[in-house]
Amino acid sequence: MNDRTPFVCVPYLPLHKAYKIGPWLLVPASMYSGEWLDTTYKERAEQLLNHFVWVNGETIKDIPIIISAENGADGVVPTEAEGRALQLAIDIGSIDQAMSFTGDKSQRIVTTDSTELQIWPLSADGFVAYPTGLMMRTTHGGWNVKRDDWYVPCPLDVYRPIMGTTLDDRLATAVYETVLKGDIDEANITERRIGIALGWWSKAWRNSVSVSWEDRIVLLKTGFEALLHDSSSYTAAKRLKLLFESAAAQSEEDITGLLWVPGETESRLHPFATTEPKFAGVLVTDLVHWFLSFAATRNKIIHDGAAKSLVYDEEGSAYNGYYVFTAERLMREALKIQLELLGHKGLWKTGLARTMGNIKQTGAKFHDI
C-alpha cells in the first residue's frame, strides 16, 4: 500500500447485509471476504475499525465499509462528485426504508448523523490523521491503529436504533446515478435539482438540537423550491400537484401508499381566501392547501421570527400533523415520483411492497427473497 491510502467506512450505520449502490458495495466488514489491495492495507483497515466505539464505550461491530463492487477493497475511493452522490444515496436509501416500515419506526430509524461517510487515510506504519470541520478545519492525528490506548467516540447526536437497519438499494442506486449525472453536466437540470433538493432534505434530518423545528421547516421548503424550480408558493404548489399527476398518468400500475392520492379534487377553500381578496372563493386540492399553508408558516418564521403553530390541522386531510414530518415525507415521495418520470420505475413503492411483489411474480418463498 502507498503511504496514506484512503479507506472509507460508515461507522454508525448498523447494517447486517451487503448492498450494491451503483459501482460501489456497502458491506459490513465482517461479511466481506473479497480481495484487498494487499495484506497490510487489510490489516490496517481492520485495526482502525476496532477503535470505533458507541457513546457507552462499547466497540462498534460490523461497521459497513465502502469498496468497489468490481475490484474489492483496492484502496480506490469515490471522487468528490461520486462521494456526494453516494452520501445522498445512503441517506435517503436508509431513512426512506426505515420510515416506510410498518410498526414502531423508532426501533429502526437512523438520522443523517448515522449515515455520514468517513474517509480515513491509512499508512503502512499504522499512523492515521483524520480531518474534521469546515469553517474551522481540525486534523486529529498522532494515532496509530496498532495501539489500543485511543478510540474514536461516537458523536452524542447519533441515535443507535434497537434493531438493525436496512437500505433500499434500488432507490439508493437511482439516486446515486441521478445526482452524479447532474454533477457531471449542467445541462441535466432536473438531475441537478434533485441533488440540490436532497441536500436540503438531508440537512433537515440531522439530529442536533442546534437545528430547531423552525430551521427544518425552512430547510425543507428550500428543498421544495429546488425540486420544483420555483419559489412562488402558489406556482410551486401547482407544480407539485402536476408532478404527482404526471407520474400517475405515465406509470404502468396504480400508484398507491403515498400521502397524495390520485383523484384529489379541488374541494378545499384556498387558505388565504379570507385574507387576500384575489383568492376569495378559490378551491384547491388537499395537497395544494397543505403546501400553501406550509409555505405561509415558513414565511412567518423568516419574516416574523416565529409562527403561531408548526402543526397542520384541517378536517379530513391526510396531510395533518407536524409540518416537518409531513414535509420530509412528501419530499421523499416527490423525489421518488420525479425519479419515476426519469425512468426509474416503481421506486414509490416501499421495500416491503416490492419484496411481496417479487414473491407473487416469481412464486418464491418469503425467506428466499
Descriptive overview:
With 369 residues, the chain is α+β, with helices and mostly antiparallel strands. It has nine helices and 13 strands. The strands form six sheets. A three-stranded antiparallel beta sheet has the order 2-3-5. Strands 1-6 form a two-stranded antiparallel ribbon. It has a two-stranded parallel ribbon with strand order 4-9. The chain is elongated, with a radius of gyration of 22 Å. Residues 364-369 have low confidence and may be disordered.
Question: Quick summary of this structure?
Answer:
The protein is an alpha+beta fold. The protein has helices at residues 39-49, 80-99, 169-184, 189-204, 213-228, 233-250, 286-304, 323-341, 351-362; strands spanning 5-9, 19-21, 24-28, 52-53, 64-68, 118-122, 127-132, 138-144, 152-153, 268-269, 283-284, 311-312, 321-322. It folds into 2 domains: 5-153, no CATH class; 214-368, no CATH class.
What is the fold's blueprint, element by element?
Layout: E1 5-9, E2 19-21, E3 24-28, H1 39-49, E4 52-53, E5 64-68, H2 80-99, E6 118-122, E7 127-132, E8 138-144, E9 152-153, H3 169-184, H4 189-204, H5 213-228, H6 233-250, E10 268-269, E11 283-284, H7 286-304, E12 311-312, E13 321-322, H8 323-341, H9 351-362
Parallel strand pairs: 4-9
Antiparallel strand pairs: 1-6, 2-3, 3-5, 7-8, 10-11, 12-13
Helix pairs in contact: 2-3, 2-4, 3-4, 4-5, 4-8, 5-7, 5-8, 6-7, 6-8
